[in-house]
Amino acid sequence: MKNSKQLIVIASIATGITLSGKSVHAQQAVTNQASNPTTYNISKNSSTIIKLNHKGDIVKYIQSTLNLHFGAGLAEDGIYGKATEEAVKDAQKKLGISIDGIFGPRTASALLNYINNRSIDDKDGLSPVPIQIQKTLVSLGYNISINGNLSSYDTILAIKSFQSKNGLNITGKIDSKMLSILNGKVKGETDETAKFKSNTNYYITVNSSDHICRIYYKENNTWREIKCFNILSGEIDEGLYTTGLQGKSLNLNKVEMKNFTQIDGLNVFYCAEQDSGCGLRICDEGAELLSEIPVKTTIKVF
Fold first, then answer.
1. Mean pLDDT computed over every residue of the chain
2. Within 10 Å of residue 242's Cβ, how many Cβ atoms?
3. Where is the domain boundary, 68, 86, 116?
4. Are residues 36 and 71 in the same domain?
5. For the chain, which ranges sit under pLDDT 70?
6. Per residue in 97-135, pLDDT tens?
7. How many domains does the chain have?
8. Residues 261-295 pLDDT 10s
9. Contact at 8 Å (CB) between 294 and 204?
10. Do residue 105 and residue 200 come from a single domain?
């Protein structure tokens, strides 16, 4: 119930809800005993803010929210003092917005979005290691930052994408069922890498359906993924190839292609502003890395 009250207050600040042309009082939304209610409507009162030395129940619920979601350790006394101001600054930093210690519509909106999209572990005793989960998602081709924060925007999108592709409820939250499928996918990929054969210590795979390219490196007889990036455009027939000619620049079909690596015939990996119709267009970083990999490295397109 307490969490619901917090969300009502934050939502009131973030959206400036109006009913029948009248502004909803944020404090009245959570209690009938509030004194000096603060009316907050973004469209009409965009300059209204909550800052240092403000007092009231609305401050108390802000403090409670900061304690719950950011571990602020604030006294929930309804006084917007220095400690609360510093806690708001810390939250603003974590939310990736400008830091001023003032709780207004910008901060409220970012906080509400964060609360609604957190990747909270399931309540069945599951306590996954966030960094390991992110590493696993990266190994499966998801382009996310490995920062230990399952609530980060890119991680939530990756989780939702995985859930969608695997017939799970799309919540953006990790639970035991998803973790089980995730581990199964990793095991399947490990079994697949055991079949890799290449003339070099590198192996390249191209997933045509997901438009993902992965580069593996063999160390101590174990293949380890070292890079994963998106295929921006282009297509090539499924099959096994080996890397051929490489170079800094190539011009085909009036398109300048940088850091090219030959796949087969005129088909190459390359970086360019537009599609050349000759192979697979990838990011500059990926093209540069591929152009440095030894020739005769196996490429598997599937």
1. 78
2. 16
3. 116
4. yes
5. 1-48, 68-69, 114-129, 186-190
6. 889 999 888 888 787 776 655 544 444 433 456 778 888
7. 3
8. 999 999 999 999 999 999 999 999 999 999 999 99
9. no
10. no
Q: What is the pLDDT of residue 190?
A: 66
Contact 256, 270 (CB under 8 A): no
Q: What is the pLDDT of residue 30?
A: 30
Structure tokens that stand for 157 in this block: 């999108």
Structure tokens at 46: 């965009």
254 domain residue, yes or no: yes
Q: Are 82 and 105 within one domain?
A: yes
Quick check: helix, strand or coil at residue 194? coil
Return the structure tokens found at 183.
């581990």
Q: How far apart are CA 284 and CA 299, in angstroms?
A: 19
Which amino acid does the sequence have at 77?
D
Please give the model's pTM, rounded to 2 decimal places.
Answer: 0.45
| Inter-residue contact 237 to 301 (CB < 8 Å) | yes
User: Could you tell me the residue range of the domain that residue 162 belongs to?
Assistant: 130-192
Residue 78: which of 58, 96, 97 has the closest Cα? 58
Identify the bridge partners of residue 242 per DSSP, sorted by sequence position. 298
φ, ψ of residue 64 to 5 degrees: the values are -65, -40
Strand-pair partners of 219: 222
If asked whether residues 287 and 224 sit together in one domain, one would say yes
